[in-house]
Amino acid sequence: MSRERKIRVLIAKPGLDGHSRGAKVVAYGLRDAGFEVIYTGLHQSPLQIVNTAIQEDVDVIGLSILSGAHLNLTRRVIQGLKEKGVEDKMLVIGGTIPEADMPKLKGMGVAEVFTSGTSIKEISIFIKDKVKNRGSASFEGKGETNEQS
Amino acid sequence: MSNHDKAITEAKKEWEQRYVAPALKRFKLTENPTRFYSPLDLPDFDFLERVGFPGQYPFTAGTYPFLPYQAGQKGAGFIPQSPELVRAGRYSGYGAAEDYRDYQKYMQTLGAKTGPNVAFDLPTQLGYDSDSPMAEGEVGRVGVAVSSLRDFEVIYEAFTGEMEIDRIASNFTINAPASIIIAMYVALAEKRGIPTERLRATPQNDILKEFVGRGAYIFPPKPSMRIMQDSIVFITKHLPNLNITSIGGYHMREAGATREQDLAFSMAIGAAYLQEGVNAGLDIDSFAPRFTVNVFGGSMEFYKEIAFQRAARRMWARMLRERFGAKNPRSMLLRQPHAAHIGCSATTLQRPLNNLVRTVVGGMASAMSGGPPEVWPPYDEPLGLGWSLEAIQLTEDAQRILQHEAKICEVIDPFAGSYFMESLTDQIEETCRMEFEKIQDMGGAVEAIEKGYMQQEVAKSAYERQKRIESGEDLVVGINCFTGEHELEVTTNRLVPHPYDPERMELAESKQIASLKEVKRTRDNRIVTRFLKELRETAESGTENLMPRFIECVKAYVTIQEMCDVLREVFGRYEETNI
């Protein structure tokens, strides 16, 4: 078994929304599933998130937004990623997202939107598949055997 | 053991052998899947010591002898109705100040007679003005934007004459800058020539729980408590009809806290605020009666949530009497607008109509635990905030049906004396008391939060719950069970437009930025500079009360962010502990 780099995921709380339950649960869950997880803490500006993503060299950014400001905040994060030339990082969104906004988010370049009721298993499988196919990080380390259902 | 208990013990043994055992065998079970309670589960039960009559110490049966809606023919709306009771209305707020003013006026044409229960937008709650880069995209979203007294005055244009501010009550759901909003209410009253002692309002003003759930904090816990103490002292001395705080365990529960954590942490937080008042030299009975509780609890577990409410009232009463030496029974009342309920985290996005069933269960639990038959939240809330008027009407009708058709409010605390309910109440109180003591050993709620203890415990509990859902140990209908290709996805439509106008919401940010610019252009900026300097000096002094400074500032149209920026410089900001 090769000892390759774990997939690195940034779980971020953009904007002023303080509801962090979902973000923390996903962070714990992905960590237990073998990912390297970095959690930003609350009240992060889009620029702070982009900078953290670059510094931490993450493969995936998960934004958690429950305040209704998801379109604006996501647009700004994507803009920041493009400006810094790191738009290859995969972006996923979690939170209270009305169905009508999902195509809009995907149109901006969001890989997937996970609303309430999603299991961590689903999220972890989605990320692994996508990252593997992109080839930006391989995932054959201890993560897969550690995965909890 | 008395002869009677001996007889019951014998009977129980016989029941287990002759009735339970054969049933277990027949259904191939190893243990009884249910429980039955008998006097053996409640030895030495002293009714007066443990329960008492409603409105009497230790208030297990209820805070009051009865609630006014219980007498009313048309009671059980969203808020307990009575001509004698002045209360704020339904939690609401969106857009720019003008938008919310117009919303209030519109609701008044539909018959609303209550004051505003103001939801503030996140920038306001976090001490940022509408024109701050931090506010971009969030102005007027989850509540109304208030950057200066000007916005506050515009909102209250909807409240004059019959609805003048000394004839209504207002609620302000805001914490970190709560004192600034209280200062605005005082300034508004002074401008309208209304004696401030006639103001009735309930600010949430419960900063400590923000660190554990909800997350709308600005300053670190210790300076936050200094601001809290100043508000306790000022309100006690100058605003006798204002409630000081509306403590909420519910937000921590929504963040993942277990039932026991919710209650123990809330009690510890309440104790910390009370202690601030005592430390400031106030007599406990002079200010404790102005403490209220927003809500505790929030789960689908019907019996346990009822026992929780009973235990909460008793713990609070005992804490006030035994720990703080209160003598006035009013100090010991756990005053809250409703009792048990289910909480948003018990609702599901999938098959949203199921939530109506869930909330009716919550309404029954509320009525049976000393509150109104509060059916909440609207079943479609997981789809988005303030989703449909239809769902709001359903919650209100469900309450009316519970009261008038099911007659659920005819008896207060119907489980009083139940072997089961009394032993469960004792058990919850005991578990919470131990956790409460653990926090006291750490130095109290402030220290427990500074160490990150409460935050980490709650996050862990949230994760444990998620794992139980994913493993199927906890079942949620339509989420991890009873799902499949043959199940219908029952969905819902919005047929009636919501009174929050989406176009106005989109325009709120630019509107607010323009009006704020005008405020800064027309005010006397020399006075602003002077008052901000004085605010800084007072904050640095550590001894002078901040409230008079806030009042002075808001009257000069100093903005929330200008004040909070000064305080951020003096007090610092809170950074979340690692998870």
What does this protein look like?
The complex is a heterodimer of chains A (149) and B (579). Chain A has a 5-stranded parallel sheet with strand order 2-1-3-4-5, sandwiched between helices. By secondary structure, chain A is α/β, with parallel strands linked by helices. Chain A has helices at residues 21-32, 46-55, 70-83, 102-108, 120-134, 143-146; strands at 8-12, 36-39, 60-65, 90-95, 112-114. The radius of gyration of chain A is 14 Å and the shape is globular. Chain A has one domain: Rossmann fold (3-Layer(aba) Sandwich). Chain B is mainly alpha-helical and 579 residues long. Chain B has a domain at 3-34. Chain B has a 4-stranded parallel sheet, covered by helices on one side. In chain B, α6 crosses α20 (547-555) and α10 runs parallel beside α12. Chain A binds chain B through residues 15-21, 24-25, 27-29, 39, 41-43, 45, 67-69, 71-73, 76, 96, 98-99, 115-117, 119-121, 148-149, and chain B through 122-123, 125-126, 128, 133-138, 141-142, 210, 213-217, 254-256, 345, 348-350, 382-385, 459, 462-463, 466-467, 469-471, 479-480, 575-576, 578-579.
Features:
heterodimer; A: 149 residues; alpha/beta; Rossmann fold; five-stranded parallel sheet; disordered C terminus; B: 579 residues; mainly alpha; two-stranded parallel ribbon; 6 strands
What is this entry, summarized?
Chain A is built from 6 helices and 5 strands. Chain A is α/β, with parallel strands linked by helices. Chain A has a 5-stranded parallel β-sheet with strand order 2-1-3-4-5, sandwiched between helices.
